[in-house]
Design a protein that fits this description.
With about 220 residues, the chain is of the alpha+beta class. The chain has 7 helices and 6 strands. Helix content is about 45%, strand content about 20%. The N and C termini lie far apart (about 75 Å).
Length: about 220
């Protein structure tokens, strides 16, 4: 706005008022109008040429502390409701941590809705089968969560990491990425001998964290 030119001294003040009305949390202070004469046109001005009076505005932008405080208090206030009224089971201080802990559950059900599970392609014509599918999906999510938790605990306990999708070390991998790492492994059978192909060092390291029962599937035990 300071670069804008005005033809008279009143226009800058009107423009400043309009700008200030659009700023909910700031105000203009120390408004000053500077008048300067400029020659219009190209080239060197003639002897009889009179400069045109141009006005510019200068001002400072200051925060409205009261408006900012009110907006901050309103943005920081929200309601959490629960049907557990017994303070011994769930105190007021524990409501917020429990609420935040639901995010991991929500992310897990988003994982179950992924197109890789093909859930949207399954048609069920009875409520009982829909309920049964929901139970199966819940059990799948339970096993998935336990596997991810176990893997991360082993990595944290041993201060170790594995590579993520970008090839960078991470101690908090997702089990979905681990599943994708094992998609290119095949079982080869020749003359009654079985061998696992493409079992890299990275995959052997991951299998160590899941214990002997999981290693049996890859002929490691």
């Amino acid at each position: 706005m300071c670069q804008q030119e005005f033809a008279c001294a009143e226009d800058p003040f009107n423009a400043a008022k309009l700008l200030e009305s659009q700023l909910p949390f700031h105000e203009l202070a120390n408004i000053e109008v500077i008048e300067d004469g400029q020659h219009r046109g190209h080239g060197r001005p003639g002897k009889d040429s009179q400069p045109t009076l141009i006005s510019h505005i200068q001002a400072e932008i200051l925060p409205k502390e009261t408006a900012i405080t009110i907006a901050t208090e309103q943005a920081g206030r929200f309601i959490l409701a629960t049907n557990i009224l017994d303070a011994d089971k769930l105190s007021n201080e524990d409501v917020l941590p429990e609420y935040k802990a639901q995010q991991s559950t929500d992310r897990g059900f988003r994982f179950l809705k992924d197109p890789l599970f093909f859930t949207s392609t399954v048609f069920l014509n009875s409520r009982k089968r829909v309920a049964a599918l929901a139970i199966v999906m819940g059990l799948c999510f339970l096993v998935y969560s336990l596997g991810k938790r176990a893997l991360r605990q082993y990595l944290k306990r041993g201060s170790q990491t594995i590579q993520n999708q970008l090839g960078k070390p991470t101690a908090t991998p997702t089990l979905r990425w681990v599943f994708q790492c094992f998609m290119s492994i095949d079982l080869l059978t020749f003359a009654s001998l079985k061998q696992i192909s493409n079992l890299s060092e990275q995959r052997r390291l991951i299998l160590q964290f899941f214990g002997a029962p999981c290693g049996k599937y890859y002929l490691l035990c």
